[in-house]
Design goal:
Blueprint: H1 9-13, E1 16-21, H2 30-39, E2 47-51, H3 54-62, E3 67-72
Antiparallel strand pairs: 1-2, 1-3
Length: about 70
C-alpha cells in the first residue's frame, strides 16, 4: 500500500499574512469598504493577521492602495 504525503490542515494554518490599513475608508467605493470589513480592518493603522488563502489575497488586491503588507510567511 503506497502512502502519499499531503499537506495537513496544521501546515496550512501556519501561513499567515499581516496587513495594516494605512489610508482611511472615507472616500472609497462600497465594494472596497466591504473588502476592508471582510479583512477585519476598521481604523487606520490597525493590523490584522489572516490566513494566506486565495480569497484573502483577492480582497487585498482590491484594496492594495489602502493597505500595507507587513509580513508574508
Amino acid at each position: 500500500m503506497a502512502t502519499t504525503k499531503t499537506k495537513s490542515k496544521a501546515d496550512s494554518k501556519n501561513k499567515t499574512i499581516v496587513i495594516r490599513l494605512v489610508k482611511g475608508r472615507i472616500a472609497v467605493s462600497p465594494n472596497q469598504r466591504a473588502c476592508l470589513q471582510g479583512l477585519g480592518l476598521k481604523k487606520r493603522h490597525q493590523e490584522v493577521s489572516l490566513e494566506n488563502t486565495p480569497s484573502v489575497r483577492g480582497m487585498i488586491k482590491k484594496v492594495i492602495h489602502l493597505v500595507e503588507i507587513l509580513a508574508d510567511n
